[in-house]
Amino acid sequence: MSASASPTPAIPVGVANQFTFHDSEHATQITYYPFGFGPIVQGQGPGPKLDYKGQEGGFSFSGTQIQVTSSPLGNLITVDLRPHIAGDELLVTLVLPDVTMTQPKENFKTIIVKTAFHRLVVAPGADRTYSVLHMNGVAATVGLPQ
């Protein structure tokens, strides 16, 4: 190793630090890093990062743009695909179960829920609609870029 190269940080054994997801047609793809992705902010660890590609386009989210909520279903990872369009919000929530790592990669299945809010039209009925996509997931323990 040269003097300018830095060693890869240690990865906790049995803990996935990268999750990749795709639907059966590969039309929707998500990559999620729950921790360990720079930059490091003083007083905090490095924050999460999520990349989304789907029919709505490609998006990258990090830090406080990603809402993580613990639930009986697992962690709910939520991002807003339309944060600047008043009244026409589109949230994507990934259900991330606990994954026990016995090898460098573990396959599992989960879902994402797309929640579309319809606040601009006042009409009888619900103010949002839901669609559910079944996703194939891979949990992995990988070295992360600095």
The tally of strands reads 9
Average pLDDT, all residues? 83
User: pLDDT below 50 for ≥5 consecutive residues: which ranges?
Assistant: 1-13
SSE string: EEEEEEEEE
Shape annotation: elongated
Q: Strands of the biggest beta sheet: in what spatial order?
A: 4-3-2-1-9-8-7-6-5
Rg on CA atoms, Å:
17 Å
What is the end-to-end distance? Answer: 16 Å
Assign the structural class, choosing from mainly alpha, mainly beta, alpha/beta, alpha+beta, or little secondary structure.
Answer: mainly beta
- Please indicate the percent range of residues in DSSP E strands (runs of 2 or more): over 45%
Q: Count structural domains.
A: 1
Assign a percent range to the helix content: under 10%
Largest β-sheet summary: 9 strands, antiparallel
Give the count of helical stretches: 0
Explain briefly what this protein structure is:
This protein is mainly β. It contains no helices and 9 strands.
Describe the structure.
The chain is 0% helix and 46% strand. The protein has 146 residues and is mostly beta strands. It has one domain (18-140). Strands 4-3-2-1-9-8-7-6-5 form a 9-stranded antiparallel sheet, with no helix packed on it. The chain is elongated, with a radius of gyration of 17 Å. Mean pLDDT is 83; it is low at 1-13.
